[in-house]
Design a protein that fits this description.
Layout (H helix, E strand, L loop, with lengths): L7 H15 L3 E5 L5 H9 L4 E3 L4 H13 L3 E7 H6 L2 H10 L5 E5 L17 H5 L6 E3 L4 H12 L5 E5 L20 E4 L3 E6 L2 H14 L6 E4 L2 E3 L3 H6 L4 E11 L4 H11 L6 E7 L10 H7 L4 H11 L4
Parallel strand pairs: 1-2, 1-3, 3-4, 4-6, 5-6, 8-9, 8-11, 11-12
Antiparallel strand pairs: 5-10, 7-9
Amino acid sequence: MIYSNIPMRDAFLNSLYEFAKLDENIILISNDFGAPALDKFRHELPRQFINAGISEQNIIGVAAGLTLKGKKVFVYSIASFITLRCYEQIKIDLCVMKLPVTIIGVGTGFAYDVDGPTHHATEDIAIMRALANMQILCPSDSNLAASFVEETLKSDCPTYIRIDRGAPKILYGDERPNLNKGFSVILEGEEICLIGCGTSLHIAMDVANKLKDKGINPKVIDLYRLKPINRKELINNFKTTKKIYAIEEHTINGGLGSIIAEIITDFKLNNLSLIRMGINDDSLYSYGHRKILQEKNKIDAESVFKEIIRGAYEI
């Protein structure tokens, strides 16, 4: 099924609903949210849906208990709340026990822009990848988000899926990528490589189109699995690359750019130059509309494009 013009959240939940109809052990826990996709569970599969209210720490404990009883549990909440508010519970109840609970965090980066820092999910990659046994997925379109359902149902470890709001441009059609690979090359190119995930992948695509007009053909990589990283396969795609731009709507500390920096360091890829483009400490807790916040941190398409053009002659 192609999920065109459907928000990533609804694409994932609709796909999960189809599996849940065939398996009564699939349980969805939410905390006081309303959405058409949630209503389908609430009305048609009431024994498989739990509205646990505003109690994120308790939700993780309940999810762990149900999983120990043989249930396949999915937790849906705002990304900033379900990661930061109950970090200890995720560590102890899920990661230490290695329980295959799937956490769906909606509203990555500045998605809940005007709600301010309380709702911004700008540190979630950094903290979640610090946990052992945790898998992190970040879909860039609704089709990819929907395909993650089957992946997580087969998983033997906890999974965090960070989902943006809205319905981004479709990048993946009927042929879904090999999820075990962990990334897709969206555009082939040489010398310059743009890497993004989720909303930043679409920024990278906009930048690539601007660069093509200047006669520069960059490679664009969608790193949709942020942990574990298929490091050797990823490195194979850097063979013709001299400069990498890691673009993220996340703190510059510990996110996508840090992942690439660690790979470059660990494998001694001294021929590669890395430019990390993310949210700096001095503006991490800012207020404003998403576009304004992106521009402030120079992670909007125009700012990234200008930065690449400035450095083009240094390749």
